[in-house]
Design a protein that fits this description.
Methylamine Dehydrogenase, Chain H; disordered N terminus; mainly beta; 6% helix; 5-stranded antiparallel beta sheet; 42% strand; 6 helices; 839 residues
Length: 839
């Protein structure tokens, strides 16, 4: 195997395009993309596995020539290694960063391993460099991959995977089982003996390369061949891309058994990304370019096919703003396709940036046949080696990732909305009404006259047997005497009914995963639509489809308190901050406020008050208001509940409510869900509409603050905010996180300050029934219901579930964390309540 450097070839390649910046489609000079060099080959290198590292790039030249060029300074002298007799089909660099740097190339005749430093030294000495042949006549090789220790090379030849040893040029293992050509293979980073492969048979397989046995094989995933493969070490997930532009994400965690996490249609993500840019004013129409169309029907067909050619890691840790991106995942992927490059977030399954080759008119390649991408974290640069799909050009692009992200970032992200109030209530704010009225709980027409004397008349009682007035008792001689019989170190006696203690929530306690108790909410099966703990964690309220609202003890022991009066299924239930009142809204269009202690109705809002039925309702602004949605409007009501008991005039309603302010959803669509914080003062109200949007209202300004369009593929049925707990402390940024739930579209975690989806949870089946979700008091976990009779618990830093809670008898429709103890309550469609405790 020899290496020759042709002088004529060097002179020809030196006459390449110089390094230059290109103009974007808006006519301005951009420093996003720079073409480092372009090479014209005699044969097409389309559909060839290319290689790109921190120092060098390698590609086939004129078919059987292996060209190695410097990525740092392309004008340096390059090497052309000759050793293959047939066209090179795959190239791969070793994993070592420092010398010796090894390279493997494959064709139908040979698989050759090259030591680049040795080759360079032999050329300087005037000798002929030689490579090591590790395989002969293996057939067409589509992919090469080095083992983590660079001692072996996995060769995808036809339907087989051959593990070739480098030191002794032997076949270490031969893996057979795929029904089509193997297109990509990867070594598992945390299990060196495990290999994962994908094939044109549309499945992936997991192998044990030591024994040569098959560990797992998937079902047929799609109708198109799988082309690329990537294993993420941080999230322990497998990502594979296919020829129709779909990404399949699977969990490689030990307990998940290769469960599918998500299936992402990259074409739909590209369309939604373009639509967001249009709404942000960054472009006129999705995929619109003012440049004249220079591509023909071949490029249009390539754009329609949209194959995922390569997957490579992309680190955004040094680019994202740490103050703004509290939970933003820097774990992203470069996706190389025929039409362009995409930055894909593995946490939210959304696109962070899009770069189309055709938007840069001076680029030599507009449709790629193959590509290799490598990121440089320190310099915020990425290198992309491209080959033309329909031509014979090979080009190296340098991409400024920081500038690319900045140019496509929505300007709305700089508004810095926050749930925590940063200013006082304005005089023009509808919330100012509540601050003025706090000094007087009754309207002006019902104010009592000022007392003329501080001494009130009392009836005299002269009979010695009656002591109600106190006049017959002797005066007390001792005004104060300390207790001397204390035996419990200042603790209250067990006979005292108010023995509840406020103890800080232990963050180190394990998750409540052990089923402790299960009770039936009603004698007859009735779906439980909503559950919520009181602020002190002592009581659990639930709304049922049989028109009842129940309040259980937190341990689900004893008989519950029953609140009846609705004529329809209870759709929402809410505790007041002082835990004295319970609010319930039902499908009969009425809203009722109950006295928890007296177990009676305290306030009633009928159907005649609103034009449409009440969809959601809750207490707001530290019990200062009632916030509800009716149709397309959100109403803010000031209310007063009379606590004086008059046995003679009990029939007379002294409690009242009156509207203060109302806001309409943008577009006039009906509100499907509503959420606001009541545990502390906050001016922000979150709403979801029938048109799949999430709208943020600022009640301090009395207007709409932001709109998140197409938050889900279906209307949101619940907005769940991280409201924290009085027993646990969280970072202030954590309160800006909220969840949205949609049937068939999983859970999405949003950051209010950036209006971005930070993470997507899709491990639980939810296709028909609306299933609820809840934050843990510590803010580290998310629980949700599912239709497979399980409840799922996710960690905030992972898209795959950490626990799957069994023991349910039907679909889990509601979940609630106890704010004071590690307890999780779940509710099912057949009317059962389950209490999970920490083991």
């Amino acid at each position: 195997m020899t290496l020759t450097v042709s002088r004529q070839m060097q002179n020809k390649l030196k006459m390449e395009k110089p390094q230059e910046s290109f103009s974007t489609n808006d006519g301005r000079v951009s420093d996003i993309v720079t073409e480092k060099f372009v090479v014209e080959s005699k044969e097409s290198a389309s559909h060839v596995q290319l290689a790109c590292s921190m120092r060098y790039c390698a590609f086939p030249l004129h078919g059987n020539g292996l060209c190695i060029r410097s990525t740092q300074n392309p004008s340096d002298q390059f090497l052309i290694l000759q050793g293959h007799h047939q066209s090179i089909t795959a190239i791969a660099f070793g994993n070592a960063v420092d010398p010796p740097l090894v390279l493997c190339s494959a064709s139908q005749d040979y698989v050759v391993v090259w030591d680049l430093e040795e080759c360079r030294e032999r050329v300087l000495q005037g000798l002929i460099p030689r490579g090591t042949v590790v395989g002969t006549l293996l057939g067409k090789v589509l992919c090469l991959r080095w083992s983590p220790d660079d001692r072996a090379v996995a060769v995808c030849a036809g339907n087989k995977i051959l593990l070739l040893g480098v030191e002794n040029s032997s076949v270490l293992a031969e893996l057979e089982g795929h029904l089509g050509p193997v297109t990509a293979v990867e070594f598992c980073p945390w299990q060196a003996n495990t290999i994962i492969s994908v094939s044109e048979d549309r499945s992936f397989k997991v192998w044990d390369c030591c024994t040569g046995s098959l560990i797992y094989t998937s079902s047929v995933l799609t109708a198109y061949p799988l082309l690329s493969l990537f294993i993420d070490t941080e999230s322990r997930q497998l990502v594979t891309g296919c020829a129709d532009g779909q990404l399949w994400v699977f969990s490689l965690a030990e307990r998940h058994h290769y469960r599918r996490v998500a299936c992402v249609d990259l074409r739909k993500r590209r369309a939604s990304f373009s639509a967001r840019r249009v709404r942000a004013g960054l472009c006129h129409q999705p995929d619109e370019s003012p440049l004249p169309s220079t591509h023909g029907p071949e490029q249009e067909r390539a754009d329609a096919a949209f194959p995922v050619l390569t997957l490579a890691p992309c680190d955004l840790s040094l680019i994202l703003d740490p103050e703004c991106e509290f939970l933003s995942s820097t774990n992203c992927l470069w996706i190389g396709s025929s039409a362009g490059l995409f930055v894909f977030n593995l946490a939210s399954f959304e696109l962070e940036a899009v770069l189309y080759y055709k938007d840069f008119g001076s680029l030599s390649i507009h449709v790629a046949g193959s590509c290799a991408v490598m990121s440089e974290t320190t310099s915020h640069k990425a290198l992309c080696l491209l080959t033309s799909m329909f031509g014979k050009k090979i080009a190296m692009l340098e991409i400024n990732l920081a500038v690319l992200l900045e140019s496509q970032r929505s300007p709305g992200a700089g508004q810095r909305l926050s749930v925590l109030a940063s200013s006082c209530v304005l005089a023009t704010s509808p919330l100012h009404f509540g601050t003025d009225e706090k000094k007087s709980t009754k309207p002006a027409s019902q104010k009592r006259p000022a007392a003329k004397s501080s001494v009130q008349d009392r009836p005299l009682v002269f009979h010695s047997a009656v002591r109600s007035s106190g006049y017959a008792s002797a005066p007390r001689a001792t005004m104060f005497s300390p207790k001397t019989n204390i035996k419990n170190d200042g603790k209250r006696s067990s006979k005292c009914k108010k023995s509840f203690k406020w103890v800080e929530y232990a963050l180190k306690d394990p998750l409540p995963t052990k089923l402790g108790r299960q009770v039936a909410a009603a004698p007859r099966p009735a779906a439980v639509s909503c559950v919520q703990y009181s602020g002190d964690g002592r009581w659990l309220a639930c709304g049922l489809a049989n028109h009842l609202s129940l309040v259980f003890d937190a341990s689900l022991t004893g008989r519950p308190a029953v609140f009846s009066g609705h004529d329809g299924a209870v759709s929402s239930i809410c505790w007041s901050h002082d835990r004295r009142w319970l609010l319930s809204a039902a499908q009969d269009g009425t809203l009722r406020v109950w006295s928890v202690r007296r177990k009676e109705l305290a306030l009633f809002l009928g159907k005649d008050m609103f034009s449409k039925p009440i969809q959601s309702a809750q207490f707001y602004y530290m019990d200062g208001f009632i916030l509800l949605s009716s149709g397309s409007e959100c109403h803010l009501l000031k209310y007063h509940i009379d606590t004086c008991r008059d046995e003679i005039k009990r029939y007379k309603q002294k409690s009242w409510s009156k509207p203060v302010f109302r806001l309409s959803m943008t577009g006039g669509v009906d509100v499907t869900s509503l959420s606001a914080v009541n545990d502390f003062y906050s001016h922000v109200v979150l709403t979801a509409g029938r048109n799949r949007t999430v709208e943020v209202f600022d009640l301090n300004a009395g207007c709409s603050a932001a709109v998140i369009a197409e938050a889900h593929s279906r209307p949101v049925h619940q907005i769940c905010q991280n409201k924290g707990s009085s027993f646990a402390t969280q970072q202030s940024q954590a309160y800006d996180l909220f969840l949205t739930c949609a049937v068939g579209d999983g859970l999405r975690l949003w950051d209010l300050r950036t209006l971005r989806c930070e993470r997507q949870f899709e491990g639980h089946p939810n296709r028909c029934h609306p299933c609820g979700a809840a934050f843990s008091p510590c803010g580290r976990f998310v629980a949700c219901g599912a239709e497979d009779r399980h409840a799922y618990v996710y960690e905030m830093g992972s898209s795959t579930f950490s626990h799957r809670l069994a023991g349910h008898t039907d679909t889990v429709t509601g979940v609630a964390f106890n704010p004071s103890a590690p307890q999780l309550a779940t509710a099912t469609l057949d009317g059962k309540l389950q209490l999970f405790l920490a083991e």
